[in-house]
Amino acid sequence: MDSRELGLVLGQQLLGVDDLHYGLWEDDIERKLANLPIAQQRYTEMLAATLPAVAEGVRLLDVGCGTGHILEQLLERGYSVDAVSPAPELSRQVGERLERFPDNDTRLFQCRFEDLPVEEVAGQYDAIFFSESFQYIDTETALTHAQQLLKPGGSITICDFFKTDKSGDGGPADQIIGGGHRLERFYLQVEAAPFETERDEDITSLVSPNMDVLNDFLMNTIKPAGLTLGEYLQGRYPKTGWLAKRLMGKKFAKLGRKYFSGKRTGETFERYKNYRLLVLRLQSS
After folding, report:
1. Which residue ranges does UniProt annotate as crossing the membrane (predicted)?
2. pLDDT in tens, 140-154
3. What class has domain 3-23+36-207+274-282?
4. Enclosing H/E stretch for 145
């Protein structure tokens, strides 16, 4: 398990949620951790609304399917869906969900999207969607693969965040929240590809409350618990504590700056990230 997958699995376990994506915090949802699953389901409904209607022969591709919760819901609605998952532990969870659908024909590709056997499934999909997985994939590769995988007139849905022009400005919270492609460069690559932009919606303000909710959890629950445990171990096992600090001190300090500085806020997110819902339609050749 690599560090990226470990972070996702730990987040899932600590927060007790089925989804790994952000939530959509509409006005009627109170900003508290207990409502995160509600906000995440709103996000799922928003994404699902961009997909073609269920019909015979319609097939979707879920790229970076996480725990498989969205995949499961789409199967329940009657869709035929394949999925891509490069993470072994998450793939295991997806496999367990798929056991609930013994008659389905879902193919789970346990590889990176860049390594997908494109020739085997070329022209098979009506829609491809990326739920916070687009940021991990080379943009040119993603668009090129999509051209080959989609049926004529098929679509891509991208629900993810991008770096703003302020990313890298050296501000006090710069690089606190990683990830994302440069938005300006992404637009240029889309212009050069055979896709028409059908929808491009800035939903940053509906997503950024995630950061305030999670920052509150980190600062007021996880950090105090960690400090208490650290004090206990230091008092009970001083030599072990000294050795751990000696070996892991720099890594702990880095984690502290990233997650426990109190700067992982909605305001920081809105400065350095732009969250967008995009639907791109493959143009007829």
Report:
1. none
2. 999 999 999 999 999
3. alpha beta
4. helix 139-149
